[in-house]
Amino acid sequence: MKLRLTRQRFKELVEEAIRQLPSKLQSYLSNVLIQIQSRPTREQLRQWNIPSTVHLLGFYHGVPVSKRSKDDTWRLPDEIYIFQESIEKVCTGDEAVRKEIRQTVWHEIAHHFGFDEKEIDEWERY
Fold it and tell me: What angle do CA 95, 88, 18 make, to 5 degrees?
């Protein structure tokens, strides 16, 4: 049976994952939009240069904090996308969805702070 949450319930779980972040990290997210979509669009995949065969659970789009200069004061908000259907597809129950959302949110926020995939993979092992 395919797992399917309401958008509201999924949003609540994403918000829960954000609240679980240390408050110091939360303060750096004031100019980050966290958006929930069913799945990435073809246009997004093309824009982000991601093959359509990649099963994308989330995506960070912006300039990482570690690459900004002190003169970089005005900018559009960075964006973190969390893809509901993609996450539901890899999970078998409510607790698995909660865990995957938390991991995906943290993963994308790590990109916001400048961590690359290799660093995040090493970090997530602990």
Answer: 60
The one-letter code for the residue type at 50 is I
Q: What domains sit in the chain, N to C, each tagged with a CATH number? A: 7-63+76-124 (3.30.2010.20)
Query: In this structure, what are the phi and psi dihedrals at residue 56, rounded to the nearest 5 degrees?
Result: -90, 120
Query: How many CA atoms lie within 13 Å of 45's alpha carbon, on the beta-carbon side?
Result: 13
Residue count of the chain? 126
25-76 pLDDT tens trace: 888 788 899 999 999 999 999 999 999 899 999 999 988 877 777 766 677 8
> What pLDDT score was predicted for residue 73?
67
β pairing state of 78-83 and 32-37 = parallel
Closest CA to 17 of 93, 85, 110: 110
Question: Does pLDDT of 91 surpass 80?
Answer: yes
For residue range 100-111, list pLDDT tens digits in order.
Answer: 999 999 999 988
What are the Cα distances from residue 8, in Å, to 13, 14, 28, 69, 97?
9, 10, 25, 37, 14
